[in-house]
Amino acid sequence: MKTKSIYTFFILCSFLHLGCAHFSESADRYNAAVVAIREGKDYFAIIHLKSIVRDDPVSPYAPNAAFVLGEYYFDNSDYFNAVKTLSDYIHSYPKDKGVVFEKLIIYKIITSSKPEEPSNEQENALIKEIRKELFSQPLFLIFYDKKLPRSYKSLFNNTYLVYDYVDKIKVFRNDKIFLELTP
Q1: What is the 3-state secondary structure (H, E, C) of 52-88?
Q2: Which of 105, 112, 146, 147 has an alpha carbon 20 to 30 Å from 35's alpha carbon atom?
Q3: Overall pTM surpassing 0.85 (yes/no)
Q4: What number of CA atoms fall less than 13 Å from residue 118's CA on the CB side?
Q5: What is the SS3 assignment for the chain?
């Protein structure tokens, strides 16, 4: 009996040790990405963030890393990778605070495409889904005199704010209008 409990104790300790090492590796990579961004070395930051998302998608740092990757692609006009990364983020972390802002970035990419490029059924369905989510709020929220904006600050220090009005939604990025939607 005593041997069995000692054996169980060693197994438990080894799992805890592996879990902590795994967690600290993601933390180290995330901290390295933060340092690289502060030093203006975005390329190295992206490498660290990609490794977090790829190697440890359940890490507490993974949602923020995925958000920043999508934002990076968007800022560098790589819209194909931006939409793919942002979509993966939305499906992997649907409860994360940044999801609504990622949907808005996707919405902007899809709706700002060139007029000669017809949108496909998937894009149209995604646009309808985003609009439905943004404009289908409970009626009692409409009558509040003062609503607080939803906000998010990314690792690249981009600040997002969404103001819900009765007749429109305004989205600001770094205090500049990013997107304006009407029902």
Answers
A1: HHHHCCCCCCHHHHHHHHHHHHHHCCCHHHHHHHHHH
A2: 105
A3: no
A4: 2
A5: CHHHHHHHHHHHHHHHHHHHHHHHHHHHHHHHHHHHHHCCCHHHHHHHHHHHHHHCCCCCCHHHHHHHHHHHHHHCCCHHHHHHHHHHHHHHCCCCCCHHHHHHHHHHHHHCCCCCCCCCHHHHHHHHHHHHHHHCCCHHHHCCCCCCCEEEECCCCCEEEEEECCCCEEEEECCEEEEEECC
* Cβ-based burial of 57 (10 A; exposed 0-12, middle 13-18, buried ≥19): middle
Using alpha carbons, list the distances in angstroms from residue 43 to 25, 34, 46, 67, 105: 19, 12, 5, 16, 21
Q: What is the pLDDT along the chain (183 residues), one digit of tens a residue?
A: 555 555 555 555 555 544 444 456 889 999 999 999 999 999 999 999 999 999 999 999 999 999 999 999 999 999 989 988 988 888 888 888 888 888 888 888 888 865 445 557 777 777 777 777 766 654 334 444 445 567 888 888 889 888 877 778 888 999 999 988 877
